[in-house]
Amino acid sequence: MRKNLYVILVSVTGTLLACILLFSKKTEAKIPSFKERAGGVSLSAEWLNTKKAMQGLLAAIEQNPENYKAMLQLSQAYIQESRITGNHGYYDKAALELLDKILEAEPKNFDALCFKATVLLSQHHFSDGLVVAQKALPINPDNSFIYGILCDANLELGKYDQAVKMADKMVSVRPDIRSYSRVSYLREIYGDMPGAKQAIKLAIAAGYPGLEQTEWTRCILAHLYENTGILDSAEYQYKLALAERPDYAFAIAGLGRIAKAQGNYKDAIFYFEKAKKMIIEFSFSDELTDLYRLNKQPTEANTNAEEVIKMLGPNSDVEGEDGHGHYADKELAYAYLKTNDVENALKHALLEYERRPDNIDVSETLAWVKYKKGEFAEANKLINAALKTNSKNPVLLAHAGLIKIKAGETEKGKAFIKTAMETNPFMDIELRNEANPYLALN
What fold, for 327-442? Predict the structure, then answer.
């Protein structure tokens, strides 16, 4: 009797164990694979090499699910694929899944912490990214990469003094394309445009021609030329980027902005439509909204404006199956303004302001929405906050000028508008048209 009971128990236990093992296999999270590239970026030798490397890493992880080194390398590849393809929704989520697996087993894995912070910043989860980066810092305080992440997080949260300290530390540890780029951006924020151009040129020289990071940096230099009205130099840099990296979408879009500034709207539309087909990037569609209106295509403009809002919405399936996971409220505020939906613009501007009230771009966004609502006194307070770093961005200065005039500070406003127009005579035509009448006032 006891023997039979024992046999039954063993049989039942064995069955349960088999069921548990089978259930575990079925419910074990599958390692996310890469997605095939589309368009021009799918034809390069770089993609073939990257694809082969990712296939090898996936095979290594499948063979050994605890191969955290391979997981780390795959997460890094996914972060780069996110940049190249614009498919941030899918690849950021995939990279985070891998990194969380690593950190569950190795909570003090320095590289995994750095990469996780990088992804969180990409998703505009700046406070969360800062927390993760601060965990990584004491593990390896002599690493330049961590100071770059800390610089970015502090900068986006509006902690500019701390961002400068982190950039200085980064460039002292390792002067390279990444550190020089951050120095350039901070100089731009503080109104030193010549210094910003000088630093970004050092960044380009430190990079390898043709790599995505290098040509992205070259496009930053081109955009600095754009913002200071030097269109021929900007165009030269965009064309150079395309010579080094053919079909680079951001350089193609840059040529579109040059054509727009020159009043060649048909050519500008061609460039932006081409760039839009190559990668997922909301700003291309956003620019097209303006261009269609300028080219007397209201139907296309309205359709495009709604498309931008859909792309940026939290439940958008444009970039991923379950939403892209990014905070995009600042961008949504401007997108809603283009559809004359000021209430939704205010809603999203306030959401972004609640997250990072010290950031000058966020203060400018909310100030501009308040201006559009006719709340000029509040707009004026906010634009003063946006001007605190002495930025010479011509759009910011034009916004400040218009707001101050409506708030009763007419002479200050006219001075801001004059500086904006002198800095970049080719600024966005709609903003120029709104500001130009005040230049004629005595």
Answer: 1.25.40
